[in-house]
Amino acid sequence: MNLTYQPYQLELKYPFSISKFTRSATPLVLLQLHHEGFTGYGEASMVPYLGENLETATSFLQKVDLKRFQYPFNMEEIMNYLDDLAPGNTNIKAAVDIAFHDLTGKIEQKPCYQLFGSDPHKMPVTSFTLGLDPPEMMIRKAQEAADFKVIKIKLGKDNDEEIIRAIRSVSNVPLYVDANQGWTDRQQSLDKIFWLQEQGVELIEQPMDKNDVEGNAWLTENSPVTIVGDEAVQRFADVKRAQGVYHGINVKLMKSAGMYEGHRMILKAKELGLKVLIGCMSETSCATLAAAALAPLCDWADLDGPFLTKNNPYQNPDFADGKYVLKEAFGLGLKSVGGSLL
Ligand code: MG
Question: How many helices (DSSP H) and strands (DSSP E) are in the chain?
């Protein structure tokens, strides 16, 4: 077992704004596990709010000794080992986890979705996210998103209604809204939610601060639209805490430290009666194909990462009718820009 990795700066097609900041590129680590002639691919996407960067990722990897693990790989044992090395670092742990799953699929000659009993025919449509922009720009982006069956918009500044009206002037697809913790007043938020419902909004992510448990729970109890916890729900232990606070959770592999724990979170959420949205960060085809392998087990998908970037180092995932198309290829089914299977 041999591990290699390279830093990679993933550039966005458009600078991306949410309620708290703007960015135009995201630092990644592209990671490979080499084992008996097979290569498993993984990826860490270091979005600022999870607190990781190239230095923390590199210093974590320097502590990792994977030679202790033999095939067949025991993912529970591997993830416990990584968590014992450091409690955080979920992005780089996700890279290792994804690479192990890709490797396992290749060795066992199975697509990753089969490793989780996930049925490609149950793939939900993926939403396409528009960052916060002046209304004219949002109109242009909404027009460019014509291949997608759902548009997700980031709200949280003071011109929410203007933005929705601008999008509705060019598109009538269902909308998801992500407030990214930007709303502060409960009653105003609820009034806004009733208005958003009339505009065809079907789901709202993280309306209020993740630490405002009571505020989010009150909104969920009174909201006619599904409320999903994102920033508040990162790892497995957070799923139970979401019960009674949100209608559903947003699972992202960069928060959950990868597919093994992401899958456990999905199962736990279902057991607790919570719905599941599977999402992504600014990611290449690698990490989003890993999420897509689990997406058929979820209620909604928000896996637009590769489509928002301008230098995806891999071929964009197969996509039709607003959905990822999972093929028979072993592992993740990741392809080079030239189209050959990796
Ligand atoms: Mg979100």
Answer: 12, 13
